[in-house]
Amino acid sequence: xxxxxxxxxxxxxxxxxxxxxxxxxxxxxxxxxxxxxxxxxxxxxxxxxxxxxxxxxxxxxxxxxxxxxxxxxxxxxxxxxxxxxxxxxxxxxxxxxxxxxxxxxxxxxxxxxxxxxxxxxxxxxxxxxxxxxxxxxxxxxxxxxxxxxxxxxxxxxxxxxxxxxxxxxxxxxxxxxxxxxxxxxxxxxxxxxxxxxxxxxxxxxxxxxxxxxxxxxxxxxxxxxxxxxxxxxxxxxxxxxxxxxxxxxxxxxxxxxxxxxxxx
Length: 264
Ligand code: SF4
Hints:
Blueprint: H1 2-6, H2 11-19, H3 21-29, H4 38-55, H5 62-83, H6 97-122, E1 136-144, E2 147-158, E3 164-170, H7 177-191, E4 195-202, E5 207-208, E6 212-213, H8 219-234
Helix pairs in contact: 2-3, 4-5, 4-6, 5-6
Iron/sulfur cluster (SF4) binds at residues 20, 22-23, 26, 240-242, 245-246, 249, 251-252, 255, 257-258.
């Protein structure tokens, strides 16, 4: 408990604690090995391919970028299969775990190619930090609500109104305004940059979401959620919240509160 009580917080930790404290407890305190899911490797490999393409100054071909996806996805899936060879125990939103691995291999290739085509067509300008570092998977650590918060921002884009736009790449459907808000206040605090908007690149659609207005968001507002979560963790408050999300929970095999009766 001592490590988790004192370590910096993140968007994902906070949202997980809010959505189901028991999942937080199982994963981060009991350190239960999560059930594998192809969607996780799909997302990681897509992010890696998009980042490599951007870091190449957009000189890599679509085929080379798809190959980056293939290599990373294959590596991650194979490592996970070594740990859990029974794909019936893999989480999947539809179909068997084995089918999902195959389906996402093809889907991730299509989405990677689409990302390259979209960015070549629309030419978003990646912002550079004052040190000249391209703002790709940019690490930050800030204090919000008296709590140290850290994370990585997928992309910062130089907007046309001398402002920086925060952008998160999504292969899934879950969108978090809180995530964009955290990034906005972190960029302001870390670089003194003006942040007015954020958005998501939606791999499912091959394009951007509508922009989210972030001009009014303050560090104090965002910090309140971190302060509540931090105090809750330190107090040992880990409320189970069984419900629809149990079906997709990677801790359900060890959870006595789960509403999902699938036998693991
Ligand atoms: S299975 Fe449901 S109740 Fe159990 S940890 Fe996961 S989300 Fe929470």
